[in-house]
Design goal:
The complex is a heterodimer. Chain A is an alpha/beta fold. Chain A has 14 helices and eleven strands. In chain A, the strands form two sheets. Chain A has an eight-stranded parallel beta barrel, surrounded by seven helices. In chain A, strands 5-6 form a two-stranded antiparallel ribbon. In chain A, helix 8 links the parallel strand 8 and strand 9. Chain A is globular. By secondary structure, chain B is α/β, with parallel strands linked by helices. In chain B, strands 1-2-4-3-5-6-7-8 form an eight-stranded mixed sheet, with helices on both faces. The radius of gyration of chain B is 18 Å and the shape is globular. The interface between A and B is medium-sized, with 20 and 18 residues.
Chain lengths: 384, 297
């Protein structure tokens, strides 16, 4: 299993009145609450934490893109990736650029190619649609989200792989001269990952393009179902998806005992799931963001992520987070890996309100006592 | 002067039709006889008919189509804007063989009615704009794309006798599969047309001088989705109610102000965003009178 470290860069120092309310933490939570001096200190700390994944021997680190929220202070994952390139030697997974939110996909093609060339080919390029709330942020029509995503992706990959200049006349993007300099170093292009919570369309799309599919924020039952769907979709496209094409991203926390791990992790998970990921349904899933079939299912439900009333202990039991002593985490990991067959693991070691020392202790314990035992799981078996 | 006839007299009831428009199906309800009137529904309208339309059907042939992509009409892939939808409606009028219909447009449908009348003024007899979207004013409005069905129902109606049942339906909307599908479908189609700019077209005011048909603007006095200030914004954009605008008569028409066929404004009290639903008799009487006039006031 390839092991990645994910960081959300949260801004947890919010007033009690907000934390205790049911108000959204996205889109409308006033940015007057953001203290730039505090932000400066947090960025220094978080960048050092991201570098510590590399120092601890991880295969890669993950950054992502979110907007107008204390959930994460990375509106531009490419900026954060650029800061990390000279400080690290591992892979850097950008999970991802939210293509439909960008005015022009060729800016993404250029920026990711720059990072790939500068880093010597260490970039993994994730592509996402952005979460629903971010369609409010930018006033982008959520009903056109999928179309824009597909077209932007097609344009970027063509720009990376076909000599320019060429013309592009799509529905959403029209360019007389597609000819970005630089081109990426990795050939034919940087690995593309597709992070998702398991929408059927995305699972199928990732399988079709043979991209690495990364499941985020889900219970184990859902992870199992989605990975099975992904493998079935791959078979439908005429190939068997290898483990390295299947990834699982999950909040992870290790302490010397299970009790201590829970005592520290549960309040931080509560901050994550009930305070930072909290918004009305019509922010999370704006009109047209989901297909009619998906929205019939999702909009009818009154619980789950975003509702602010998640039972975090139960969430941990259902596998939304990997928490415990090194022994517990190793055992769970081995069982999950055997059952689910993933070949990429992205541990979210920084989440919610975890302090710097808590993060480092957990990371170091994981690196020393869990990582050596799990690294070789799911390694491709030599063909007979 | 119009008189409101006794409620005992049975009202026309609509028949359902499925019309082929260049290969797409448009679901349409129709009732009455007389000059054609096309009712253009609002974005949250789940396909109902209502007393006001039956009252009008005594004197007119009332057509109530579902917009492309809304309720039970097929999607029209060529529709990415209200202007696109206006073109689609000209095709529908051709399919129905409608000769200069009048338009009644409610909320989103009002925006659409104005857009159709600007696009093809010769095809439209008269226009009734009811709590119409389409223009922007510096008046705060709720963002309906952030509202739950219950919050939306609360803001939609003024009279508790209508609001409370609407809230009760909204609370359980996901239990009624057909209704819920229409709700989600309309919500999606509306986002595609009205997400940004929010329920308006910045170019519409500069084109309203092309709307030559007589216009009646009707507004619910207690509208909380598009407050009555928007009615005055429409009146301003459509031109002065009495007499020519200040300044040289041959000056630029960039504001959209019109010197002829001025619009008339009627504000209906004890009504929110849907005066036709909240005060159907008053609404129908006003509209009937306007549509029956030989000449604009």
């Amino acid at each position: 299993v390839k092991i990645f470290g994910f960081h959300l860069m949260p801004y947890p120092d919010l007033p009690r009145e907000h934390l205790d309310s049911t108000d959204s933490s996205w889109v409308t939570l006033t940015n007057a609450l953001f203290d730039p001096r505090q932000g400066h200190a947090l960025y220094q700390r978080y960048l050092a934490e991201l570098v510590s994944y590399d120092r601890a021997g991880f295969d890669g680190l993950c950054v992502n893109e979110h907007h107008q929220t204390p959930y994460g202070l990375m509106p531009s994952p490419n900026v954060v990736a650029a800061l990390l390139v000279p400080q690290t030697s591992c892979q850097i997974a950008i999970l991802g650029n939210a293509l439909p939110l960008r005015d022009h996909p060729l800016r993404v093609a250029e920026e990711v190619a720059m990072l790939d060339v500068i880093s010597g080919g260490r970039i993994i390029s994730g592509f996402v649609r952005g979460i629903g709330a971010e369609y409010h942020t930018f006033g982008i029509d959520p009903a056109a989200s999928r179309e824009r995503f597909y077209e932007a992706h097609d344009l970027i990959v063509k720009a990376w792989t076909q000599p320019g200049p060429f013309e592009w006349y799509g529905k959403h993007y029209k360019v007389r001269y597609v000819n970005p300099w630089p081109r990426p170093l990795q050939q034919p292009h940087p690995p593309i990952w597709s992070p998702s919570q398991g929408s059927g369309e995305t699972v199928d799309w990732a399988a079709q393009h043979r991209y690495t599919y990364l499941q985020t924020y889900s219970d184990i039952a859902t992870v199992r179902r989605v990975f099975d769907d992904f493998r079935a979709a791959a078979q439908g496209y005429g190939y068997t998806a290898p483990p390295e094409q299947i990834g699982w991203a999950v909040p992870t926390f290790v302490a010397d005992t299970d009790e201590r791990a829970e005592a520290i992790a549960l309040p931080a998970l509560d901050m994550l799931f009930n305070r930072l990921i909290r918004m009305p349904k019509d922010f999370f899933f704006p009109a047209g963001y989901l297909t009619l079939t998906s929205s019939t299912r999702v909009m009818g439900s009154k619980t789950g992520l975003g509702s602010g009333n998640v039972d975090v202990r139960q969430f941990v039991e259902r596998g939304y987070a990997l928490i415990g002593s090194p022994e517990t985490v190793r055992q769970k990991f081995e069982a999950y890996q055997k059952e689910l067959g993933f070949g990429c693991f992205s541990g979210i070691f920084q989440f919610g309100s975890l302090g710097h020392e808590q993060f480092l202790d957990s990371l170091n314990l994981f690196a020393a006592k869990v990582m050596p035992a799990i690294r070789d799981l799911g390694a491709p078996t030599p063909s007979p | 002067m119009t008189t409101i006839r006794s409620a005992q007299v049975s009202l026309p009831t609509p028949t359902e039709h499925s019309i082929d428009v260049r290969g797409r199906r448009v679901r349409l309800a129709k009732a009455g006889a007389g000059a054609p009137v096309v009712y253009l529904h609002g974005s949250g309208d789940l396909g109902g008919w209502g007393r006001a339309l039956s009252l009008l059907a005594r004197d007119f042939t009332v057509y109530r189509p579902d917009h492309p992509g809304f309720n039970l009409s097929d999607e029209d892939p060529s529709v990415d804007s209200v202007l696109d939808m206006a073109f689609s409606y000209l095709d529908l009028f051709d399919s129905l063989g409608l000769d200069r219909p009048s338009l009644i447009g409610v909320s989103f449908g009002g925006w659409l009615a104005a857009q159709i009348a600007v696009l093809a003024p010769a095809r439209i007899a008269k226009v009734v704009l009811v709590d119409a979207a389409g223009l922007r004013a510096d008046i705060p409005t709720p963002d309906i794309f952030t509202l739950s069905p219950v919050q939306h129902a609360e803001l939609l109606y003024h009279r508790p006798v209508l609001r409370n049942p609407a809230i009760a339906v909204a609370e359980k909307i996901q239990d009624d599969a057909g209704l819920f599908q229409r709700y989600l479908r309309n919500r999606m189609a509306t986002a595609h047309l009205a997400w940004n700019p929010y329920f308006h077209d910045p170019k519409l005011p500069g084109r309203l001088h092309r709307l030559t048909a007589p216009v009646l603007v009707v507004w619910g006095a207690q509208d909380r989705l598009l407050p009555v200030g928007y009615a005055h914004r429409w009146m301003e954009a459509l031109g002065p109610a009495d007499g020519p605008v200040d300044g040289p008569a041959d000056g630029p028409v960039g504001s959209g102000a019109r010197l002829d066929s001025p619009a008339r404004l009627e504000i209906i009290d004890n009504a929110g965003h849907l005066p036709a639903a909240e005060q159907p008799d008053t609404f129908a009487a006003l509209v009937r009178e306007f549509l029956s006039e030989e000449k604009p006031a």
